[in-house]
Amino acid sequence: MKKNVSLKDIAEQVGVSTALVSYVLNNKLKDRINKDVAAKIKQVAEDLNYRPNQIARSLKVQKTFTLGLIVADISNPFSSQIARIIEDEAKNYGYSVIFGSSDESAKKTGDLIKLFLDRQVDGLIVSLPEHTEEQLRYLKKSDVPFVLIDRYYPTIPTNSVSINNYAASQKAVQHLLDNGRKRIGIVAYKTALFHLNERIRGAVDLLAGNASIGMVGIHSINQDVIAAINSFLADPQPVDSIFFTSNLLAISGLKYINSLGIKIPDQLAIVGFDETDAFDLFYAPVSFMKQPLVELGCESLKLLFNSIENRESIASIELEAELVVKSSSIIKK
Question: Is the pLDDT assigned to residue 57 strictly greater than 60?
Answer without folding.
Answer: no
